[in-house]
Amino acid sequence: MPQKENQTIQSAPSTSATVSTVAENNKRIAKNTLLLYIRMLLTMIVSLYTVRVVLHTLGIVDYGLYNVVGGVVTMFSFFSNTMAVASQRFFTFELGRNDLVQLKKIFSMTMTIYIMLAAIVLLLAETVGLWFVNTQMTIPADRMDAVRWVYQFSIFSFIMTMLTVPYNGAMIAHEKMNVYAYVSIIEVTLKLIIVYLLVMFSFDKLKTYAVLIFTLTTIVTFIYRTYSKCSFQECRYIFYWDTPQFKQLLSYSGWNLLGAVAGVLNGQGINIILNIFFGPAVNTARGIAYHVNSTINQFVQNFMKATNPQIIKYYAANEKERMMKLVFLSSKLSFLLLFVLSMPVLLETKFIFALWLKEVPEYVVLFTRLIIIAALIDTLSYSLMTAAQATGDIKKYTIVVGSLMLLNLPISYLFLKLGFNPAIVFYISIIITFACLIARTVILKQMISAFDIKYFYIKIIPRLLLVVLVSSVLSYVLRLIFSEGIIKPLLTIIVGILITSIAIYTFGLNHEERRMVFKLFNRKKVIK
How far is the C-alpha of 56 from the C-alpha of 36, rounded, in Å? Predict the structure, then answer.
């Protein structure tokens, strides 16, 4: 972290926050989590329906092409991802210090950088990216023209979204999660309209879908930007350039760059090499599997969206002990939230897909199970990542974790070259995700002395493993006992959720956390 910022933190008061302030923060977390869950439920229901219709309308090949070609554009998102983390962190940090003047400067500076990045992305996408799509990917010759449409509109959508990131960052920093819930109502309505128009129009379905998704992106980003401009004083862009501040942002973003590149290569890079080796049908299976995982994972992401600003603000106020308490609780609850939803999906994946999709692509069942397992491991790291980002001193953290993540692509390519089936890339991902978790805890202990690594591995992890073991064994045994028939999968899902919930309450939570859950259901304050 830059020296100036360190001095500010060190000189901050060391006394604990008042009881009323803490209670207000926790009340805000609970409220924001609830609002984000409402948003998630709306998007989840519509999203599952639209995927079913879009897959049936486009077909397996065209759906896979849309997924992988859009992924080529997303490959350039490491620019955007890097600055998104930086802007989010600095916005929240300055809010924690109540420095509106500095906040305005950071917003304008961030927007200036994003405009520069948008120009760079456009240049690279229209040269290197276009060459890659035309010459290196496995695309049926008769679909090349439609693919070019998808690619160009994906570029437009991506740049528009990228230029909205600073506004969204300001919204999250101000913890205005209710806006996401309200906009989601508009967004899901537009998605339903898109599905209707896609079926009704007689034009090329892939081209039509690309144009409609671009239109949706345009409307939603316009709403977010308009709201932020009207609601937050700092969101008034005026060209502003401050070389020291630019270096500060760039220094922070620079070390984030490795992590951002690794994240993009882990996602879209793997998708592209699967296309090269196996064609668009496997991309469809991967795309649907990731869609299921992201739908379930929204519960965790919404919870972390509500807690992340508080973690950073506690650090800015030098409340390290309170910050680590929230970090540990967030890590545990993130895993448990995802697990209680993942358990029935893991048990009855085949049944769920047969009920959901008219045509189930090959590999989609196995891909889904492996992706969910990797996601469960990764949830333990979410709050650890936020804690590391809060310090601003992320050089060592990013080098170690980013380097581990980067291994995924070359190792996956090697195994595919040796003739392994496409599922091998997800087995490799699980191993690397686990290695990254260990690396994060070791480095975070060096970054923040208040981080108790022994508590994490002795008090948190064993409880979570016990929940997984008890839930998995009991649910599987009961699944074998149930009589065969159409009702068996439904019973398995219901009983699986019930058993997992009981195991979480009994083994996953300690006495204090059980008391918090009881108070939550009684609509009292969540955290003492």
Answer: 30
Average pLDDT of the residues in 110-123: 83
Whether residue 359 contacts residue 59, with contact meaning beta carbons closer than 8 Å, is answered with no
Tens digit of each residue's pLDDT (9 = 90 or more) over 249-272: 666 666 666 666 777 777 778 888
Distance CA 245, CA 253 (A): 12
What is residue 143's predicted lDDT score, i.e. its pLDDT? 86
Radius of gyration of the chain (CA): 23
- Do residues 399 and 258 lie in contact, with contact meaning Cβ atoms separated by under 8 Å? yes
- Reference 460, options 468, 450, 470; nearest CA is 468
- CA-to-CA distance for 455 and 461, rounded, in angstroms? 9
pTM: 0.72
Helices first, then strands: H and E counts in the chain: 24, 0
Q: Which of 437, 431, 389, 424 is nearest to 407 (CA)?
A: 431
Per the CB < 8 A criterion, the answer to whether 454 and 442 are in contact is no
Six-digit token string for 170: 């300001």
If one counts every other C-beta atom within 10 angstroms of the C-beta of residue 327, the result is: 26
Q: What is the pLDDT of residue 119?
A: 87
pLDDT (0 to 100) of residue 412: 94
**Domain map of the chain by residue range?**
19-521
CB 393 within 8 A of CB 1: yes
